[in-house]
Amino acid sequence: MDEISAELLSTVREIRDFVRLMAEPAIAERDRNLRIELRRIVGKSVPGAKAVLLMDGTRSQTAICNEIGINKGQLSVLVKQLNSGKLLSGDGKEPKLAIPIPVNFFEGGGTDE
């Protein structure tokens, strides 16, 4: 990729991130029930929260385990629960969260504000 394309891609990513930030309140309202279910499933589990944030469809369950140090059995149970709650898309081998969440989603004490 040449320098101009790289700069253009960087700018587009910045614009995308800005649009997501501006749209977050509307997204939170649309996905309210799913977000409540996500918080219920993950609970106060720090490894679970970190694992969910890595579920973008590009990592296998093994890669997620290796990256954050979560137990494979614990991650497997989490993925099954997320699947049951309709919170994952795909087959679960490379889990992808079905709803967008901000990176600080699990830090707010249970609110989307």
Give the strand order of the largest sheet, numbering strands 1, 2, ... along the chain: 1-2
Shape: globular
- Main sheet characteristics: 2 strands, antiparallel
Cα-to-Cα separation, first versus last residue: 39 Å
Which sequence of SSEs, written as H and E, runs from N to C?
A: HHHHHEE
Strand content is under 5%
Q: Which CATH class of the largest domain is shown?
A: Mainly Alpha
CATH hierarchy: architecture of the largest domain = Orthogonal Bundle
Total DSSP E strands: 2
Structural class by secondary-structure content: mainly alpha
List unreliable stretches of 5+ residues.
Answer: none
Taking Cα atoms only, what radius of gyration do you get, to the nearest Å?
16 Å
List the total number of helices: 5
Mean pLDDT, rounded to whole units?
89
Number of domains: 2
Reported by name, the CATH topology of the largest domain is Arc Repressor Mutant, subunit A
Helix content: 55-70%
Architecture overview:
The chain is mostly helical. The chain folds into two domains: 1-30; 32-113, Orthogonal Bundle (Arc Repressor Mutant, subunit A). Helices cover 61% and strands 4% of the residues. It contains five helices and two strands; from the N terminus they run αααααββ. It has helices spanning 3-30, 32-42, 46-54, 61-68, 72-84, and strands at residues 88-89, 96-97. The chain has a two-stranded antiparallel ribbon with strand order 1-2. The protein is globular and about 45 Å long. 16% of the residues are buried. The model has no long low-confidence stretch (mean pLDDT 89).
